[in-house]
Amino acid sequence: MMPFTTYCIRTFLCYGIFLISLMLFSSCSHTSDGLSKFDASIKTSDDVNQLKQLETQLTVTPEKAALHPDYQIINNIAVPYIPEYRMGPGDVLEIVYHLKYEKTADDYRLEVQDRISINLPFYPQYSSSALVRSDGKITAPLIGDLSAESKTPMELAAELNREYKKYLLQPAVTVALEEFNVKVAELKKAITTAARGQSKIAPVSPDGRISFPLIGGMQVQGFTVAQVEKTINESYAKQVRNLNITLILLEIHHPKLYVIGEVEKPGAYDISSVPNVLNALTLSGGFKKSGELEEIAIFRNEGLERPISFKVDIKTALRTGVSLTNIKLKPGDIIYVPKTRIDERNDTIERIFTRGIWAVLPFTTSLGASYQLDRVVTP
Confidence band (pLDDT; 50, 70, 90) for 116? Predict the structure, then answer.
């Protein structure tokens, strides 16, 4: 019967030969290159001139930009088109309120919470003070409820005269304003601070909303600053006259993407800093020697019906001249750099031998130690 120690040594040698064969096979399988997609190969001064000519041919002119969706013309200069920023949770806005007090040609119209005085000079017992209620009506002596909201004082006085003539001769009603622009006063109290004047700091909540005085909460996530500003002004116009607001984007909290696996500094990074895979690898400190650059995996779920994943062969792309800048990353993307097959096998060897058999059996790799164990164990 074969000694146990001899069996272990033979098994180890056979497994080692098997691993060496796999490594040789892997190195041979990676030697075949695809067709090169480089536009030029620089060896001489003529090659440099050809490269310059190629760059001149490909330069985006205003004429070309008019037909190119990725460019726009500003002051007759072709510049890359940059999408307008869209807000998200964590962004901080400042809302600056501009209240206009200049004279206008339009007559003042009554609003809810305005207080008026109704005067009947020949019938003072029916004179009164009335508040425009939330239903837009007032209560007048003798005639009861009457709609007042959105009417001018003169229009309301004319209607009161018509109603009082049913009961009185020559009522001669006049309407005067006692308290008005109440909503403006309330808004000023809500927005005025000693440090910033008539403005308000508003962070975008995790659910993508911002709360505004008088008009309440509003969804802002996914909208541009100009779109939100327009919507807010339209909402305030229904509540307060002579008001205009300006939005200032104070802080931007970019959404994150994640780089994990065989990189020097795995972690979360701002999406604005890493528009493509190469930028992500650079910011993460580059890949380790154990990283497999031919099978980098990207997992994506943002804005999709279901998660997707795809692989990127950076090694081949760099070797053949294929541009990787077109592979744009999105918020929430996970970039995973796996280990090479050899490093995975090394980990397997370590788990089986160093942490497994060798951790249990009291012998080392030296033939001397094995021989001593063999002499003790073998009858």
Answer: very high
The tens digit of pLDDT for each residue in 241-298 reads 777 888 888 888 777 889 999 999 999 888 776 678 888 888 888 888 888 888 888 8
Measured distance CA(66)–CA(229) in Å, rounded: 30
How far apart are alpha carbons 252 and 171 in whole angstroms? Answer: 63
Q: Which fold has domain 115-179?
A: wza like fold (3.30.1950)
The edge-to-edge listing of strands for the beta sheet with 334-337 is: 267-270, 256-261, 334-337, 296-300, 308-312
**Same fold: 92-102+191-251 with 115-179:** yes
Choose the CATH number for 256-339 among 3.40.50.2300, 3.10.560.10, 3.10.105.10, 3.40.50.720: 3.10.560.10
Torsion on CA atoms 102, 107, 112, 116, rounded to nearest 10 = 110
What pLDDT does residue 147 have? 93
pTM for the complete prediction?
0.48
Q: Give the residue extent of every domain in the chain.
A: 4-32+342-377, 45-80, 92-102+191-251, 115-179, 256-339
The residues, ordered by sequence, that sit 6+ positions from 314 with a Cβ below 8 Å of its Cβ are 277, 278, 281, 293, 294, 296, 324
